Amino acid sequence: MSYVIPFEAGEYVARLRKVKERMEGAGIDLLLCTDPANINYLTGLDALSFYVPQVLLVHKDEDAPFWLGRLMDTSALKITTRLPAENLLPYPETMLHQQHVHPFQALCEHIQSRGWGNQTIGVEMDVDYYTARCHQTILAGLPNAKIVDNRRLVNWVRLAKSPAELRYMREAGKLTTVAMHEAIDNLLAGKKSYEVAADILRTSVMGIDGLYGDSPAAFPFVMVGENAHACHLYWTDREMPKNEMVVLELAGVRKRYHSPLARTVLLGRPSEEQRRLADVIIEGVDRALEAAKPGATCGEVENIWQNVLRRNNLSKESRVGYPVGIAYPPDWGEKTANLQDGDKTVLEAGMCFHFQSGLWLERQGIALSETFAVTESGGERLAHVPHRLYSRN
Amino acid sequence: MSYVIPFEAGEYVARLRKVKERMEGAGIDLLLCTDPANINYLTGLDALSFYVPQVLLVHKDEDAPFWLGRLMDTSALKITTRLPAENLLPYPETMLHQQHVHPFQALCEHIQSRGWGNQTIGVEMDVDYYTARCHQTILAGLPNAKIVDNRRLVNWVRLAKSPAELRYMREAGKLTTVAMHEAIDNLLAGKKSYEVAADILRTSVMGIDGLYGDSPAAFPFVMVGENAHACHLYWTDREMPKNEMVVLELAGVRKRYHSPLARTVLLGRPSEEQRRLADVIIEGVDRALEAAKPGATCGEVENIWQNVLRRNNLSKESRVGYPVGIAYPPDWGEKTANLQDGDKTVLEAGMCFHFQSGLWLERQGIALSETFAVTESGGERLAHVPHRLYSRN
């Protein structure tokens, strides 16, 4: 059995068409993608080829995109994508990590040679892997082009998932479910955070029901006590303190689609205050997900959650949710619409969000999140881990 | 037991002094670091705080660096670094992922308010996480500053490891050793690539001898058959083909220090040709490591390897090695000196390189690498996995 590209050819054609429609609306002739998730979305490419400069060129008049990248990685394109061989533009090894030359000079030469050097080119100004030097090289090499920020154009197309994508999102949710259940059991059994993380990693790759897992864009978080307040720390071999909260956050991943989830385990018996806090979060999520139907706005969904908090004299300053789907390191957010006060993005069926319903208070953090897909009957939860505070009683 | 910062305060002071010496040499008043490995090196910061804009400010006249980052991540700084609280400069949540405002505007305001707005500022032009928009924001916000590329100034300071750092490099090598042995056994026992990867992940975090492992900057590679030729693909559930080569590449990680290693397992009996290829690689590594002493240049070490290949009518186009140490996603290379023809960097004791002695031929790949530290008696191997081609006979 050789490599299986995760979607039919027609799915990629449809994605490309949507991107070109947006390009036309934005007056962009040539789109340059450096975000590996966007490149995967448009071609299927799935390899660690983004740690060196690479770029996907989508031109309004071309049937298929072009890929420019490191010579060594051309084979990965031949295996994981359907791009025609003549659309693969390798640059030589000698251009890597040099002070006097940059691979994007080869990109500029290609653009000039195709006669696109005086067109409008949309770049990803605020994407990791589109470094200041990439941009500088393009400005110098394409003096007659109009270079504009494409404003995460492809990310916006990715927001609403197709039925084929939703299948992988649900499968990812299955992996999340099995890894999270094991992690909760491990914590209650007294394991340390690095041991819990080690099992999460193994289990979310081993998967379940014949579904293996891909590598997540970020490593699992197992945040303990005071560290639960610092919500992006890594695991340690610290002794687990009694009566402290432990926040778990992890994502199962299928064909690069992420379904993240957070749960909190109290290493003791919950106080009345802690129970109440959990109840408020659970109610806030329930109310918000009921409203997460096509036609509602992101801001409206957030306000429903925030109103439940406010009624209980609580608040969460940061956004409560962000879109998820395909992701590569360093994180699994899609970076478009936010479940945040004032966000006017209108929900459509198939959009998927991580509803990060966590509260980080003065002395402790508690997070009980859900990843959901927007459906006509509200937010469909993609993982199935009982939505409650876990504890030792 | 609370969080333990991995080095004494004096170690960080010494690092900062070396960086300031180089700044003076380069005429840089203020250095801006966005590479999370550089920030870790100078402060100890160890958190996933780099998926949103953050920057470390090293000013020639200031005792301690300043950190500017997301409000939510300030706690991670308080836990994992010794930076004075007044040197932590959080920007508000509302600046994140906005089209009209960027967190680096807060950076520019801080620089202006300190009176540094007309000084020479060295930025990391070609570092992931220093996006085109970061740079654009700085150019607009600091019109009177002289903005220059710092040319990976901190990376160059990191090249030669201190005795305290070498301890972690050797510990990382121990984790590599145990994970690689298990992976080889798993392959010979018939496990699929995702199963092999799942065990590597778990074992390299569980560690050995009371040493747990950190998360690697890149996930392990288990590259099979034709895919072994595409050297940056991820694992799958593909059936393992008979008589094919499988290339394993993974890194044990201690306190963020990486010791990568590659080994090749043949799922059958080796042909004469394959044996010969392995022998050439092994001889090339042996000869090169004997010569990897202080005073030799990177290019000379590469030439010794290349001469062994050439004598056997082989060659490797890309560099044969790169420096390793602290790393965060997406990869574990330090991106300074290369073991490459013509590289005039002079080796010093304590420099560590991944000697990636792999050959990717027309139909198959074979890699038998070593990570070594430069010592007076040559390259000291940091992992201890017999340096040979593994096979089923």
TrEMBL record, chains A, B:
SUPFAM superfamilies: Creatinase/aminopeptidase, Creatinase/prolidase N-terminal domain. Residues 168-376 form the Peptidase M24 domain. InterPro entries: Creatin/AminoP/Spt16_N, Creatinase/aminopeptidase-like, Creatinase_N, Pept_M24, Peptidase_M24B. Coiled coil: none annotated. GO terms for molecular function: hydrolase activity. Residues 15-159 form the Creatinase N-terminal domain. The keyword Hydrolase applies. It holds the Pfam family Creatinase_N. Keywords: Hydrolase. Signal peptide: none annotated. This is Ectoine hydrolase DoeA.
